[in-house]
Design goal:
Blueprint lengths: L5 H4 L10 H4 L13 H9 L9 H4 L6 H9 L3 H9 L5 H7 L3 H4 L12 H15 L14 E5 L3 H12 L3 E6 L7 H4 L9 H13 L2 E4 L9 H7 L2 E4 L5 E2 L12 E3 H13 L13 E5 L3 H12 L4 E6 L25 H4 L3 E4 L1 E8 L5 E12 L2 E4 L5 E4 L2 E4 L3 E3 L6 H5 L22 E3 L2 H4 L4 H20 L18
Helix pairs in contact: 3-5, 3-9, 5-6, 5-9, 6-9, 7-9, 10-19, 14-15
């Protein structure tokens, strides 16, 4: 245990963000560089090194949190990095993007603010990169087996890295022009600068992983032909079918899915575009959907110079404290103020969009909404609560309904789907097609980055065993495992 009195003598302290008026003028990460290191040793000392660390259960990766907390407290950054990488291929991604279910399961969180696990994690990995502790780990020998990974998001990259290190020759296929999937084009630069992805890709290249961009399996290459070319295939194509809003006026210009809007802003930061074709500059922006993707749209609109930003959520506003029906160590639904929300805008809860209104040129100009409430488990509109708000740009951020079925991949492979439209798999993450496996959101449905990495690592074990008859690779989860929720 780092410090037996750490949680008694030190209060929770989190990473400091840059002033709002400064950060909305650029696209750099919102946190003050270097603000964590002076405080992180004390924060790590708050870990009680519980006899039964429930943070392990909160995190699907099974991160060895008490161990690397202890090393961080002692400022043994190399040992901390080794423990961190023992369960997580990309802690710099999760340390920035994960909502930290491990902290919700922290035993200290029963009656005190939880340990800042996420901040400790990102401090360790950033220090490891600075010290040169993150190096390529090429395999000692090659197996002679080949694997294709479809999709380069966190699940695909995790599976590819594990299989490469096991000695297989791995090629990752990505339909976009750069590697990273939603990490690249779905996550704004102010949440995670893309240099973090780039240096991981270089590490993987040095280990032997091959990357093929601008190749969409199903359209550019027939899935059956790909299967014949490789000894095994991992489908990690994500759940990219956005949930639509079929109300009158949906076809007006200026209404876009979040994943149509966000990638263009990222392409500007990559230098591909001078100005985003879809921009919030000078417009009244409405974001429909109260989750993290919606918050990303809010932060992006601020930086593009929106006249106003309003975020709508159909559900009631969550409480600021854990409710009795969401007991520890489950992941509670709490009112969350992200960095994007700190920057301004209005958040409206318990409302539903009835229709959009446009001008004579077919451009959206207003959104009509009505308040809603749950009665007997059903959502009902409240009469007399209708109102209109200006809307010249609307982004739909209401989640995703399943993997893409329009590109031909599912049909060409002959894959079976489950009741929710995800690719069905067995206990080894294998599909109904021999040698074809599925990992991440394509099999689980929309989920968190830690679940995606855990799925990639677990599917890699199934593939390795298929190819060689046995496997020493870890499998932190089963396909049927679910988060600690009520």
């Amino acid at each position: 245990m780092a410090d037996p009195k750490g949680f008694l003598t030190h209060e929770r302290e989190v990473a400091k963000t840059r002033p709002v008026e400064e950060r909305v003028k650029d696209w750099n990460e919102v946190y003050q560089p270097g603000s964590l290191l002076p405080i992180i040793s004390k924060q790590a000392s708050r870990c009680m090194d519980c006899g039964i660390p429930f943070c392990h259960n909160g995190c699907p990766l099974g991160n060895l949190i008490p161990e690397w907390n202890d090393y961080a407290y002692r400022e043994d950054w190399s040992a901390a990095s080794e423990r961190l990488h023992a369960t997580n291929n990309f802690p710099e991604f999760t340390g920035r993007l994960c909502p930290a279910p491990c902290e919700s399961a922290c035993v200290l969180g029963i009656n005190q603010p939880a340990v800042t696990i996420k901040n400790v994690e990102v401090s360790i990995i950033d220090k490891a990169w600075d010290k040169g502790d993150v190096t390529p780990q090429p395999p000692e020998r090659l197996s002679g087996k080949t694997v294709a990974v479809i999709g380069s998001g966190p699940a695909g990259l995790a599976a590819a890295q594990q299989l490469t290190r096991a000695g297989h020759t791995v090629a990752v296929y990505e339909r976009a022009d750069r590697i990273g999937g939603l990490l690249r084009y779905g996550i704004p630069e102010f949440k995670m600068e893309k240099r973090h992805i780039n240096r991981r890709i270089e590490q993987m290249r040095a280990e032997g992983t091959k990357f093929r961009t601008e190749v969409e399996i199903g359209r550019d290459i027939d899935a059956k032909k790909l299967r014949k070319r490789y000894d095994a295939v991992v489908i990690a194509a994500g759940a990219t079918t956005s949930r639509d809003l079929p109300v009158p006026g949906r076809d007006l210009k200026g209404i876009h899915f979040a994943m149509e809007y966000l990638p263009l802003a990222n392409k500007v930061q990559e230098g591909d575009l001078t100005v985003a074709p879809i921009t919030a500059e000078g417009k009244h922006v409405v974001v429909i959907g109260g989750g993290d993707t919606g918050a990303d749209c809010v932060g992006t609109a601020h930086r593009q110079g929106a006249a106003s930003v309003t975020q709508l959520e159909i559900m009631p506003r969550p409480g600021e404290e854990r409710s009795a029906n969401q007991p520890w160590p489950t992941f509670p639904m709490l009112y969350k103020v992200t960095s994007a929300h700190e920057e301004g805008g209005e958040r409206v809860y318990s409302v539903s969009t009835t229709h959009f209104e446009g001008d004579e040129d077919g451009n959206v100009q207003a959104l009509h909404l009505i308040e809603v409430e749950f009665k007997d488990g059903k959502l009902e509109q409240k009469a007399g609560t209708e109102r209109v708000i200006p809307a010249q740009l609307v982004t739909l951020a209401m989640g995703f309904t399943g993997t893409d079925q329009e590109n031909g991949l599912v049909e060409q492979f002959g894959l079976e789907l489950d009741a929710r439209g995800n690719v069905a798999r067995d206990a080894d993450f294998a599909t109904n097609v021999p040698g074809v496996y599925v990992a991440g959101d394509a099999g689980r449905g929309q989920s968190l980055i830690v679940w995606a990495i855990a799925e990639g690592r677990s599917a890699a074990r199934g593939v390795d065993r298929f190819l060689t008859g046995a496997s020493a690779l870890p499998a932190p989860i089963k396909p049927t495992d679910r988060a600690l929720t009520v």
